[in-house]
Amino acid sequence: MVAKKVRNHLPLKLHAHWEVNISSEDVLREISLNTTGSVNSEETALISADKDSRASVDLDVTEKNPDIFKTLKESFLKAFKVMDGELRLHTNIDCFCSGTTAVTLVKLGPYLVVGNVGDSRAVLATRDKDNSLKAVQLTVDLKPNLPAEAEGIRNCKGRVFAFHDEPTVARVWLPNNDALGLAMARAFGDFCLKDFGLISVPEISYRSLSEEDEFYVLATDGVKEPTWILIQNTDI
Fold first, then answer.
1. Does the predicted TM-score (pTM) go above 0.90?
2. pLDDT digit string (tens) for 30-56?
3. Cα–Cα–Cα angle for 64, 126, 118, rounded to 5 degrees
4. Would residue 87 count as lying in a domain?
5. Who is most buried in 106, 118, 135, 235, counting CB within 10 A?
């Protein structure tokens, strides 16, 4: 129920905040004037969201268009924050010990803008020099095993450790109770852990597209871990 609520309402909130901040035509015009040929198609920029965000890298695409990408980043941050706040108010949905990941992609002219919370994943299918189709991961799986994510959780008195029978799966736990055991560092809902390091702040990335790029896929870990099912859709 939490996942369906986010799926149905987060895109609308993102669009609404985007329209308030700046029109798409203005963004496209300024991008076209200022960045033609300036960003390699292999470059991805991870931008720190705010004081709650962790681990980021800035690249040329944001340096050459600081105002535009600041606006886009703010739209993602506001939409994700409002979405998580509304979940808390829905008394008919149990969000205390349940939640969802989310990955959101917006195509704007020659750029993809991705907002990611948790371990859902965005992947781009592109052609290499041999014209073979290859997958390029656009997001980082935001799990507690990442040092920066674990540090943020522990700074809020949450605990991070893995069970002996699954030593590679780090989980987030309450300070004095072996619960909830959440295997992600960011999520919507799961409010029992929100005071102990779990956040819903998205990691935001930008990527310029090239002629070699063919399609992209958004999927939960239930799809990506057993096998990738690629669906071509140029209008995503």
1. no
2. 544 444 433 332 233 233 333 344 433
3. 70
4. yes
5. 118
